[in-house]
UniProtKB/TrEMBL annotation:
Keywords: Cell membrane, Membrane, Transmembrane, Transmembrane helix. One of its GO terms (molecular function) is transmembrane transporter activity. It is found in: Cell membrane. The chain crosses the membrane at residues 22-39, 59-81, 93-112, 124-142, 154-175, 187-209. It is a multi-pass membrane protein. InterPro entries: AA/rel_permease1, APC_superfamily. The keyword Cell membrane applies. One of its GO terms (cellular component) is plasma membrane. This is Transporter, basic amino acid/polyamine antiporter (APA) family. The keyword Lyase does not apply.
């Protein structure tokens, strides 16, 4: 994006002029989409007991600040771009700047991103099911472990839920020939869930601290 901005004249004024009907809904929906960048932070505590690392608070703060900084720079660059240059999506940035090489780099990035995301979700998400089962919100069979001390039932259940979700949110709209941008709507619903989850988590923490059930929270 830096190269694209450097190659072309700034379109900052034109982009602002083309924006119409700015309202609270537009601003809120944009913020909600931005929240998706923090998806996955909530799974970090689930693996805290399985790693030899005791500075999660510091790591989380650094990660959040880094993400905010990255997105701020990206938004500033986007505001200066001629949006016609990226009409085909973010992949157009790679294609315009690096040609075929850019497409290869983007494809490799997507491959490793999906592999790492799948591996992380396989490790962290089942622990959410286990925690819920341990306090009685889900069936107790999810807490059972195999000979490797891994929660096999929770991992299998998580995999089944992912497959079912993929079918419902990806293949089903194709079969039904829905005209709406179903994937984007699902992303928006997911980010709303993230926002509510974060807000409720903070409220829960403050309540527990006030009740002195949680003490000595380290912020750094």
């Amino acid at each position: 994006m830096v190269i694209l901005v450097a190659r072309n004249a700034s379109n900052l004024v034109e982009n602002f002029k083309n924006v119409k009907d700015v309202n609270a809904y537009l601003i809120f929906s944009t913020i909600i989409t931005f929240m998706f960048a923090f998806g996955g932070v909530e799974t970090t505590p689930n693996i805290a007991n399985n790693v030899q690392f005791n500075k999660f608070s510091k790591a989380l703060i650094i990660a959040i600040v880094t993400i905010i900084g990255f997105y701020t720079i990206a938004y500033i660059l986007f505001l200066n771009l001629n949006l016609n240059l990226i009409s085909d999506g973010f992949i157009q940035v790679y294609k315009t700047v690096l040609g075929t090489t850019g497409l290869v780099i983007f494809s490799i990035y997507l491959l490793f991103y999906n592999i790492s995301s799948t591996m992380t979700s396989t490790l962290a998400n089942p622990k959410v099911l286990v925690s819920a089962a341990q306090i009685g919100f889900l069936p107790s069979f999810l807490t059972r472990t195999n000979r490797f001390n891994q929660h096999r039932n929770a991992i299998i259940t998580n995999a089944v839920l992912i497959i079912v979700s993929m079918f419902i949110f990806t293949l089903l709209p194709m079969f039904l020939k829905l005209n709406t941008n179903f994937f984007r709507n699902v992303i928006n619903m997911g980010t709303i869930a993230f926002l509510l989850q974060y807000v409720l988590s903070f409220i829960t923490i403050f309540v527990l601290v006030k009740q002195k059930k949680i003490t000595n929270i380290r912020w750094w």
